[in-house]
């Protein structure tokens, strides 16, 4: 092994002194020895050849020139022990007192130059620093670097002298270098590489040193001249070119001026080794990567070496080995697998020239199994509002060890079944979370479902879509003079935003002046509610019960609103009990609605509209209305009333009553003729008699005149006794009775009413059809068993309730 010198002096530094030596590194100096028991010649002789620090010896701390006991410091160099004329300063008992500093067998003391402490001894105070002090004081002692004199460290700087003679104690080694060699670092080369030994030489003394430092290894050594000033150090490395066989050397030694330091070394044998072989996990039909790491330790020749890659005992590739000394190189090849390689194949790498090889097994996965192992779950979906994002987090799993520690899972992100993103999700752990986003814009609504699909399957999430609507504000009644107003509330109870087209319309467009259907378009976020108001101008004759229908694409609602209700009450037929008075219908009409309205009031007499009046009323306003009606030609019982709203209003109300005009219960002819009527009848008969006498010579003229008078008399008689279109019903029972009276022709029932009759009461109804071929029936439970058919229209029909039954006869 040869040496190359490459070191450089780092230059004089500040004094390191004991600070550089204070270390626990036992490669520098040995540990402290046993305490000194007394200043004998044998002990001093032993110390003269020893380098171990002793607790009871005085030593100098070079960094500050302070004198302390060996107990206060560690790893003290031999030159630090203070001797005077080759005698050591030691601590020992004196006159059975505390140990004091002695030279030979006598204590040393403070010289007479000190005003206060001359003649005082030096003792150890373990609680003080420095620990050697003048008795009964805090005054320490130190070395004068100029001449080596031991002195007090106070401002008087008095010398420490021998007892009796008073000779100053002078440090013998004050003019010598105190050297400390140290091997600070050694590298670990291989044969053929450089061994680098870093060293430090420290001079703790008060004199400059110029001389050799020597490094030895095996049976070889090398020396270099160094120059170290007092209190300074130098750093210089030794660089050694190692050779074949140097791996057997285990130690180096650094020596200077009789002081040495050693360090173990490790020189590796030069060789080429395969450190590692590895493969990827392949999918059958895809490529398997085979990698190798080769290290060249030292400077072993590699010019003729090759590297062989072997699969299933067959060499698939051979490469030349190219690597520098001390370097590491990596090589890789690809091998195409097949289904026959499932589940494992043997792989090896070999350097045949030196017999170096390594082998392993490679995993080859079945392609179908590999895809089925790729799965995804969706633990979280965050649905934003419109103009925000829908975020879906997929939890990707591989149901086996992840091939090669990392792999890509091909993933499709679908919205409403349409792929919106394709991504290779890289996983290195299972499960692995990854988030996909989708912008929520109007054109992309509605969102019905989202899914993530991998080769191993898919995970579909269906969203709850639920839009509801209601008429939140609606006029329950409307007026012909004001618009019909309503407010529709639409709420999104679903999970996703919705685009809505709300349409509100009046079912019967004929009741609206214009725009029977109105619409609004709007966007509705999840859990959001919006309201829209609509107004319709209805026609003046708009019927009550207007239907409004609200529609969206998913829901419909219909409500009905009515016109203000005019109710009639307190209806009476004035003049009914006075044949000489005009008849009129009167009553109170009240607007019971919440809106002002104008409606038509109808006055009805005997089932026919006798008069109409247009009436405007404010809410809760009542007004008395009257209308004259024509008196009937015949006496009898008649219905009358007031009907509000015109006939087109399905919410019309009516107040009806019954009144008897010239009511005469006895149905005999004489009882039903008043004296006046009887006189008129006699006059009529006399008139006929007069005509007979007048026209006795002209029969034809008499017949014509008589027929006219007869017809007039017949009409007058009908007014008195009934007949023509009337049905007279009479209760011949001895108790009150109720009977149902029905009249029907061949097509339909033309009259049907339950009639309440007191004992002996008679009532008349003008209800017969104009033509014959009709049926009149009466009964309590079974009308059909008491019915008579009249093929030709009679003069009238009478119905009488008798104990033996109901009798129906033509009058």
Structure commentary:
- 8% of the residues lie in helices and 48% in strands.
- By secondary structure, it is mainly beta.
- The strands form 16 sheets. A five-stranded antiparallel sheet has the order 4-5-6-7-12, with no helix packed on it.
- Strand 10 (141-143) and strand 11 form a beta hairpin.
Low-confidence stretches: 1-53, 646-653, 663-674, 707-723
Structural class, judged by helices and strands?
A: mainly beta
The main pleated sheet reads as: 5 strands, antiparallel
Radius of gyration over C-alpha positions, nearest whole angstrom:
69 Å
CA-based shape: elongated
Q: What is the terminal-to-terminal distance?
A: 164 Å
Per DSSP E runs of 2 or more residues, the count of β-strands stands at 57
The level of helicity is under 10%
Beta-strand fraction estimate: over 45%
- Helix segment tally: 5
Give the neighbour order of strands across the main sheet. Answer: 4-5-6-7-12
* Average pLDDT figure: 83
Structure in a nutshell:
The chain is mainly β.
SSE layout and pairing:
Layout: E1 2-4, H1 17-21, H2 41-48, E2 58-61, E3 66-69, E4 83-84, E5 87-92, E6 100-103, E7 106-110, E8 122-124, E9 132-134, E10 141-143, E11 150-152, E12 160-162, E13 179-186, E14 194-203, E15 209-217, E16 220-228, E17 233-241, E18 251-256, E19 259-264, E20 271-279, E21 282-283, E22 287-297, E23 306-311, E24 314-320, E25 328-336, E26 344-351, E27 356-365, H3 367-372, E28 374-383, E29 389-398, E30 407-415, E31 418-427, E32 432-439, E33 449-454, E34 457-462, E35 467-474, E36 477-478, E37 484-492, E38 498-506, E39 517-524, E40 529-536, E41 546-551, E42 556-563, E43 566-574, E44 583-591, E45 597-605, E46 608-617, E47 622-629, E48 636-643, E49 654-661, H4 675-694, H5 699-721, E50 726-731, E51 737-744, E52 749-757, E53 762-766, E54 774-779, E55 787-790, E56 797-802, E57 805-810
Parallel strand pairs: 21-27, 36-42, 50-56
Antiparallel strand pairs: 1-17, 2-3, 4-5, 5-6, 6-7, 7-12, 8-9, 10-11, 13-14, 14-17, 15-16, 15-18, 18-19, 20-22, 22-25, 23-24, 23-26, 26-27, 28-29, 29-32, 30-31, 30-33, 33-34, 35-37, 37-40, 38-39, 38-41, 41-42, 43-44, 44-47, 45-46, 45-48, 48-49, 50-53, 51-52, 51-54, 54-55, 56-57
Helix pairs in contact: 4-5
């Amino acid at each position: 092994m040869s040496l190359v010198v490459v070191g450089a002096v780092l230059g004089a530094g500040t004094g390191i002194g004991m600070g550089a030596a204070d270390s626990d590194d036992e490669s520098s100096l040995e540990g402290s020895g046993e305490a000194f028991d007394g200043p004998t010649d044998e002990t001093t002789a032993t110390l003269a050849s020893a380098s171990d620090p002793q607790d009871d010896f005085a030593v100098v701390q070079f960094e500050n020139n302070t004198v302390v006991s060996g107990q206060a410091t560690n790893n003290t160099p031999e030159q630090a022990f203070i001797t005077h004329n080759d005698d050591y300063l030691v601590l020992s008992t004196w006159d059975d007192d505390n140990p004091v500093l002695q030279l030979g067998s006598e204590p040393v003391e403070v010289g007479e130059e000190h005003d206060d402490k001359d003649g005082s001894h030096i003792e150890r105070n373990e609680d003080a620093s420095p620990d050697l002090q003048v008795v009964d004081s805090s005054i320490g002692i130190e070395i004068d670097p100029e001449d080596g004199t031991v002195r007090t460290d106070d401002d008087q700087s008095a010398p420490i002298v021998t007892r009796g003679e008073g000779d100053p104690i002078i440090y013998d080694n004050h003019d010598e270098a105190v050297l400390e060699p140290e091997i600070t670092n050694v590298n670990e080369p291989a044969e053929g590489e450089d061994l680098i030994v870093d060293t430090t030489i420290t001079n703790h003394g008060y004199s400059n040193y110029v001389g050799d430092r020597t490094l030895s290894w095996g049976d070889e050594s090398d020396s270099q001249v160094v120059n170290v000033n007092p209190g300074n150090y130098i750093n210089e490395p030794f660089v050694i070119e190692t050779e074949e066989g140097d791996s057997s050397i285990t130690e180096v030694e650094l020596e200077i001026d009789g002081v040495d330091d050693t360090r173990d070394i490790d020189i590796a044998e030069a060789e080429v080794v395969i450190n590692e072989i590895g493969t990827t996990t392949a999918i059958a039909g895809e490529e398997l990567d085979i990698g190798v790491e080769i290290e060249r330790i030292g400077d072993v020749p590699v010019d003729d070496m090759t590297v062989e890659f072997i699969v299933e005992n067959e060499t698939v590739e051979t490469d030349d080995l190219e690597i520098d000394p001390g370097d590491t190189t990596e090589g890789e090849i690809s091998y195409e697998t097949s289904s026959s390689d499932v589940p494992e194949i043997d792989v090896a790498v070999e350097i045949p020239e030196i017999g170096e090889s390594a082998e392993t097994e490679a995993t080859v996965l079945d392609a179908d199994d590999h895809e089925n192992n790729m799965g995804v779950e969706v633990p979280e979906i965050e649905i934003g509002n419109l103009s925000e994002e829908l975020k879906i987090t997929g939890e990707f799993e591989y149901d086996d060890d992840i091939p090669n520690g990392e792999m890509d899972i091909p993933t499709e992100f679908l919205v409403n079944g349409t792929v919106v993103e394709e991504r290779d999700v890289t996983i290195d752990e299972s499960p692995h979370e990854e988030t996909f986003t989708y912008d929520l814009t109007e054109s992309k609504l509605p969102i019905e479902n989202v899914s993530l699909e991998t080769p191993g399957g898919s995970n579909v999430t269906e969203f709850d879509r639920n839009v509801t609507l209601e008429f939140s504000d609606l006029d329950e009644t409307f007026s012909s003079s004001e618009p019909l107003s309503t407010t529709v509330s639409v709420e999104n109870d679903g999970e996703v935003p919705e685009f809505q087209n709300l349409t509100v319309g009046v079912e019967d467009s004929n009741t609206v002046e214009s725009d029977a259907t109105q619409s609004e378009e709007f966007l509705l976020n999840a859990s959001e509610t919006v309201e829209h108001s609509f107004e319709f101008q209805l026609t003046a004759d708009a019927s009550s019960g207007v239907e409004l229908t609200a529609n969206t694409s998913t829901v419909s609602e219909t409500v009905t609103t009515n016109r203000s209700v005019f109710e009639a009450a307190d209806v009476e037929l004035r003049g009914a009990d006075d044949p000489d008075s005009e008849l009129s219908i009167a009553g109170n009409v009240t607007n019971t609605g919440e809106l002002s309205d104008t409606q038509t009031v109808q006055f009805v007499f005997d089932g026919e509209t006798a008069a109409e009046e247009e009436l405007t009323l404010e809410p809760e306003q009542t007004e008395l209305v009257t209308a004259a009606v024509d008196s009937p030609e015949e006496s009898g019982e008649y219905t009358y009333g007031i009907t509000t709203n015109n006939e087109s209003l399905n919410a019309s109300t009516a107040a009806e009553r019954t009144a008897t005009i010239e009511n005469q219960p006895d149905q005999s002819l004489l009882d039903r003729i008043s004296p006046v009527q009887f006189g008129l009848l006699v006059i009529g008969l006399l008139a006929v008699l007069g005509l007979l006498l007048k026209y006795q010579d002209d029969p034809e003229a008499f017949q014509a005149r008589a027929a006219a008078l007869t017809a007039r008399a017949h009409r007058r008689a009908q007014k008195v006794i009934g007949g023509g279109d009337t049905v007279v019903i009479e209760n011949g029972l001895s108790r009150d009775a109720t009977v149902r009276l029905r009249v029907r022709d061949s097509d339909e029932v033309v009259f049907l009413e339950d009639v309440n009759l007191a004992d002996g009461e008679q009532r008349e109804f003008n209800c017969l059809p104009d033509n014959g071929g009709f049926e009149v029936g009466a009964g309590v439970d079974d009308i059909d068993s008491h019915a008579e058919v009249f093929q030709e229209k009679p003069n009238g029909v009478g119905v009488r309730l008798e104990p033996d039954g109901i009798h129906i006869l033509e009058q």
